[in-house]
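Quick one:
INPUT:
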């Protein structure tokens, strides 16, 4: 079997590499010549644990190829996956589908024999219908079916998510297309992965509904964290207590500075716009968006409060810039709201992130970039942890105190135990744990 993967962004690259691991011949196509040249040299445009080895093994085996030439890749393919970006459209927040539709036009011109065209990009309801219309209008002679096959990959654990997914969603009412997609995902049947066949609109909405629910869960526990600080409760114990309920589960119940990344922010906006246009506004989704945007801005105030109410002329050490660990992605990360707010309040910043600094340098200015966690603390007035990278989980307390002017730590990810921090002589400020924050006057 042969597959063409259109787009070598996060979804396309991970999906293409994983499908080639199934023994399928995959050609990943992208218009960006520099990116393709880099991939052919073994250089990855993203950081994802294990992807470099997976990609190298399948390139060596001849199953994975990178190219800028779409027609021959599509001409020989049994299935073509559209995995291009769908960023938020300026002005209204809806998904920008221009790349999807451009890909559909190019695919139409190259089709040869029966081909399944699968939309893997996250797209609003009705997009697959429009892709079908575009291809059909340009190539009325073409024999094809359009399928919705949304991805559910988490940055930092994408390979595991693809190889051992919770489920596979295939939106099609064509028996022939269903058989092709079933053959592609046959290796997952062997590990009893649930495969749900449904209609295309349903498949498209499943993706948005899933992300909407998870973003709501994050926002809910952040709201509970605020309440915990007011009434003397511990949000981590609350999260454990409700997470033990099988109907709720423990995942996405970690209080913090708000959700970010490439998916949740844009998908929540697109879901809200889709519902509004359908005449059925989703008030919960709209409220979640508003609360999350506000929360990220409020986190800067927490750091300022921990520094005595002012950071004018003070230096703050920042650990973590990416929206989550094990990725170099800083898109919509809380750091992009927090750091500029601290600078506007008069603070100087010394920052370190294991993987995200190169991307951050293209967006954030006026920051002293450091080569390690302890270097960022040298001479700073306080330390703030924004991302829970593993290497920040066991910092040397004595070394922290020797490097900082004052032993002040603001932990927006609740990595450490407040009691241990107090015993170590560090003023510790965290999320949703009232006793420690009350001592700080928050």
């Amino acid at each position: 079997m042969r597959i063409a993967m259109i787009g070598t962004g996060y979804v396309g690259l991970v999906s293409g590499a994983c499908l080639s691991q199934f023994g399928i011949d995959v050609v990943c196509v992208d218009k960006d010549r520099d990116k393709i040249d880099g991939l052919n040299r073994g250089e990855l445009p993203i950081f994802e644990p294990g992807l470099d080895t997976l990609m190298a093994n399948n390139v060596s085996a001849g199953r994975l190829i990178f190219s800028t030439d779409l027609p021959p890749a599509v001409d020989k393919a049994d299935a073509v996956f559209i995995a291009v970006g769908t960023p938020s459209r300026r002005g209204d927040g809806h998904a920008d589908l221009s790349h999807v539709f451009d890909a559909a036009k190019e695919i139409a011109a190259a089709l040869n024999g029966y081909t399944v065209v699968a939309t893997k990009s996250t797209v609003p309801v009705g997009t697959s219908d429009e892709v079908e219309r575009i291809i059909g209008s340009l190539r009325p002679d073409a024999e094809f079916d359009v399928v919705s096959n949304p991805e559910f990959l988490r940055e930092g654990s994408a390979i595991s998510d693809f190889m051992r997914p919770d489920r596979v969603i295939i939106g099609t009412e064509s028996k022939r297309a269903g058989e092709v997609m079933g053959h592609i995902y046959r290796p997952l049947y062997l590990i009893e992965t649930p495969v749900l066949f449904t209609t295309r609109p349903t498949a498209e909405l499943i993706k948005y509904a899933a992300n909407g629910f998870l973003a709501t869960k994050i926002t809910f526990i952040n709201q509970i964290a605020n309440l915990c600080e007011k009434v003397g409760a511990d949000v981590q114990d609350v999260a454990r207590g409700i997470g033990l309920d099988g109907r709720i589960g423990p995942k996405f119940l970690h209080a913090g500075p708000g959700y970010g990344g490439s998916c949740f922010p844009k998908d929540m906006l697109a879901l809200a716009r889709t519902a509004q246009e359908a005449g059925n506004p989703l008030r919960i989704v709209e409220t979640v968006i508003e609360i999350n945007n506000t929360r990220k801005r409020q986190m800067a105030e927490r750091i300022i409060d921990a520094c005595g109410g002012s950071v004018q002329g003070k230096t703050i050490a920042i650990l973590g810039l990416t929206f989550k660990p094990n990725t170099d992605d800083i898109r919509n990360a809380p750091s992009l709201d927090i750091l500029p707010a601290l600078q506007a309040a008069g603070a100087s910043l010394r920052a370190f992130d294991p993987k995200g600094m190169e991307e951050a340098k293209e967006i954030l200015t006026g920051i002293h970039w450091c080569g390690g966690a302890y270097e960022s603390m040298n001479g700073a007035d306080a330390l703030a942890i924004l991302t829970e990278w593993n290497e920040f989980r066991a910092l040397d307390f004595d070394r922290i105190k020797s490097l900082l002017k004052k032993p002040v730590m603001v932990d927006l990810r609740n990595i450490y135990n407040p009691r241990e921090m107090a015993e170590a002589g560090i003023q510790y400020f965290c999320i949703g744990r009232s006793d420690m924050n009350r001592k700080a006057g928050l």
